[in-house]
Amino acid sequence: MLLTVTTTHRPATDLGYLLHKHPDRAQRFDVTTGVAHVVYPEAAEDRCTAALLLEVDPIELVRGRRGSAAEGFSLGQYVNDRPYVASSLLAVALGKVFGSALKGRCEARQELAATPIPLEIHLPVLPCRGGSPLAERLFGPLGWSVTARPIPLDPAFPDWGDSHYLDLRLAGTLRLADALTQLYVLLPVLDDAKHYWVSVDEVDKLIRAGGDWLGAHPDRELITTRYLAHQRRFAEEALSRLTELDDRPAEAPESASAGHDAADDRLPSLADQRRAAILAELRACDARRVVDLGCGEGNLLRALLTDQFVTEIVGVDAAPRTLAVAASRLRLEQLPERQRDRITLLHGSATYADSRLTGYDAVVLSEVVEHVDPPRLPDLASAVFGAARPRTVIVTTPNVEYNVRWPTLPSGATRHPDHRFEWTRTEFADWAEQVCAAHGYAARIEPVGPVDPEVGAPTQLAVFSRESAVTR
C-alpha cells in the first residue's frame, strides 16, 4: 500500500526535516505487519514528494491472529485484497515511521513544523465504505480540497460498476502534523475496520490524535464510532471527552449521519472562548496564584501554564484517573523544572472544605457546578466561599436557555450526560445572589460566546469578589 506526501513550500526539501527522513536516502522500517519503506521520488527546491510504501506479510498477519477471531482462521486472509489497500495497517505504520512528525516536533525547523504549508496527499487505493461522498464529508471540513475517484470493479467489464475503493487526492494548506494525524485517524474510519483488537486504550489514542480538530468536526460521532469499532461504551466515553474539549452538545454515536448546523463549525470553539474569558478575568483581578477546582483532564491548566502572568497553579479533581490523564496530557514530567514547579495536582472535591486550598488569589470552577447534585450545592458554596475564601471566585456554567439553538440536542436534554441540572440566566443570578449574601461576596455576571437577543449566550460567567477585598 502506498501513501505520498508532496509540498511546494520553498525550499520543498525541508519536508525531509519535518518527516525526519533525509531525501537522499531510502529507509526501511520493520513494523508488526511487514516492512515499511520511505523514499523520495522527487526532491527539488520547488517540489518534494515523500512516499511511504508498506509491504504487508499476509502470512504473518494470519499467524499473529490480528483482526477478528473469525478472520484469523479464514482462507480469505490469504487471498483477499485487504492487506494491500490503505487501512489501519497503513495508519499503524504511519504512526511508527513518522511518529515525531505526527507530534509536530522538529528541532531543526520547529517554526516550519508550526506553520501551515501547501500539501498534496495521494492514496492510490483506499477502501471507503460510503464512497467519494463520505471522503468529501470527512476531509472537506478540515480544509482539504478532495478529489475522490471511484475505482471500477473491473475496467474490462464497466457494467459491473464501481468497487468500494477510491483513488484519493487531497490538497490544502495545513501543518504537516495536522495532516498526518487526520490520516492516522481517518484511514481506518473510511475503511470501517481495524486489523487489531480495540480496547479502552484506543479512546486515549483517539483523543491524543484528534483532540485539536475532531471535537469541532461535524461528523465527529461517525468518526468516533467507526474508529472505535462500533463499541458503544468506548464511543460514548470518547464523545464525552471531546465535548469537554469543544463544548458542543454530545450526540448519540449512531446519529452521525444526520445533518449538522453551520454554527457547529465556528472558530474558535466555545471552550476556547470560555478559557480566554477566564484568563482575562484572572488578569483583571491580578490573580497570580490560582486553583482550578474540578480541573478534569487539564484543558484550563494548559492555558494557565502558557500564561506567565500566573505564577502558581493548583489543579484539583475528585477522580485520580482523570488527574493521571491531566498529568500525561500536560507532560509534567517533561517540563523544565521552573515550569514544573509552577503547577501542583491534588486529589480533592469541590464539596468538602480543604485547608490546602486556602490563601490563593482565585479559585476557578469552570463547568463544574452543573455536575454537582443540587442538594450538595450549599456544601460547595461553604467549601469554596466559606473555607477556602479566596479573593476572587470565577464560575462558568451552561445557559440552558441557549440549548434550543442546537437542533441536534434533543428537547429537554442536557449538554452532557453527567450534568445534574442546567440553569437559566435568572436561576444562575439567584444562586449567585444567595452565595454573596451568605459569604460576603459581590458578583458580576458576564456572557461568554455569541449573544442571542432572545436566549442570551451559551455560557454564563460569574466573577465573585470578596467584599473585604473590594473595599480595601
TrEMBL record:
- Kindly list the GO molecular function terms attached to this UniProt entry: metal ion binding; RNA binding; small RNA 2'-O-methyltransferase activity
List where the protein spans the membrane.
none
Q: What is this protein called?
A: Small RNA 2'-O-methyltransferase
Return the CDD domains for the record: AdoMet_MTases
What biological-process GO terms show up in the record? Answer: regulatory ncRNA-mediated gene silencing; RNA methylation
Keyword annotations of the record: Magnesium, Metal-binding, Methyltransferase, RNA-binding, RNA-mediated gene silencing, S-adenosyl-L-methionine, Transferase
List required co-factors.
Mg(2+)
Q: What is the lineage of its organism?
A: Bacteria, Bacillati, Actinomycetota, Actinomycetes, Pseudonocardiales
Q: Which family does it belong to?
A: Belongs to the methyltransferase superfamily. HEN1 family.
The reply to whether Metal-binding figures as a keyword in the UniProt entry is: yes
The source organism is Solihabitans fulvus
Q: Which InterPro entries does the entry link to?
A: 3'-RNA_MeTfrase_Hen1_bac (IPR024026), Hen1 (IPR026610), Hen1_N (IPR024740), Hen1_N_sf (IPR038546), Methyltransf_12 (IPR013217), SAM-dependent_MTases_sf (IPR029063)
Primary enzyme class: transferase
* Chemical reaction(s) catalysed: small RNA 3'-end nucleotide + S-adenosyl-L-methionine = small RNA 3'-end 2'-O-methylnucleotide + S-adenosyl-L-homocysteine + H(+)
- Kindly indicate whether the keyword ATP-binding belongs to this entry: no
EC number(s) in its UniProt entry?
2.1.1.386
Q: Record's SUPFAM superfamilies?
A: S-adenosyl-L-methionine-dependent methyltransferases
Occurrences of domain Hen1 N-terminal (ranges): 1-242
Q: Where is this region: Disordered?
A: 245-265
Alphabetical list of Pfam families matching this protein: Hen1_L, Methyltransf_12
**Occurrences of domain Methyltransferase type (ranges):** 291-391
